[in-house]
Amino acid sequence: MSLKIPYETVLETVKKALINSGLSEEQAQTCAEIHAQSSADGVESHGLNRVPRFVEYIQKGFINPKGEPELVGGKGAVENYDGHLGIGITNALFCADRAMALAKDHGIGCVALKNSTHWMRGGTYAWKMAEAGFMGISWINTESCMPLWGSDEPGVGNNPFCIAIPREDGPIVLDMAMSQYAYGKLGVYRLAGKKLPFPGGFDQDGNLTDDPGAIEDSRRILPTGYWKGSGMAIALDLAAALMANGYSGLDMDEADKGSCTGCCQIFIAYDPYLFGSKEEIQAMLNRRVAAADASHPEKEGAHVTCPGERTYASRERSMKEGVSVDETIWQQVVAISEGDLNTKDIASK
Questions:
Q1: Which among 130, 179, 310, 336 could bridge 221 via Cys, Cβ 3.0 to 4.6 Å?
Q2: What is the pLDDT of residue 342?
Q3: pLDDT exceeding 90 applies to what percent of the chain?
């Protein structure tokens, strides 16, 4: 069952849970803001739902709360950091800031981070760059959780990719995994007792299905665009590992320390007005977005949107009506905030 919880209550409860798990007050505040904001934006799969697993990984030693990014290389507009298995959120926020600082000096900035941990909602960092006035590109490689096209076993990560276009009337932000649905989204539908809107993978008999639980059991999520998503996933994995001089998905498989432990993350910030005036660039963006939004809808009463536009509507609704949370997940996070650290992660199988 879904509950509506005031945003500030979600924020403070997550903060208490993370302090109880060993984070400093500053770390807990930063991470709680990201988790609460993600759920408020309608991405509960990587918001509140990820808190129990985050706590579990700290307890297992997969995440080192004392680990911080260390500069290990750099040249011009490019820097390379070792994340020392620190908190994925704080590592990623630091690297996004560094990419923007480099872009201020060079027009473009690229930061490659290795040996980090799960950054939760990937779009967080692209949104951050766009809201600061930069075009942002970021992606991550993960352990194998998706079959290569033509295979019946996991062989590549779903390697989320994000791109954000800064627009004064609201950034356009694409945040997508290379699978039709991320595992976190499968968990959201399973916990709600719902089928997927479209087939999202295969069951254990190899049949395409819209049953989220069956896909979680088989570990055969469907690559976005079939062979194209499979190919993109491999390319993103290799590019991240190459640029950061870090783990590939195969290395993470062999380390076997949970989701994204030891991963690489790439952050690119670009000055959008490097070769054109703000007025002409913004006019071009607005015309293009307006044309897309004016597309004739397939279904009566529907509205076509660009990536990220629905996020604002979800955010406004959450601030007015409360953040939508799964009741069982909420009870788990409340329990952790009250000192019970023996909570099982039910958001994923």
A1: 179
A2: 79
A3: 96
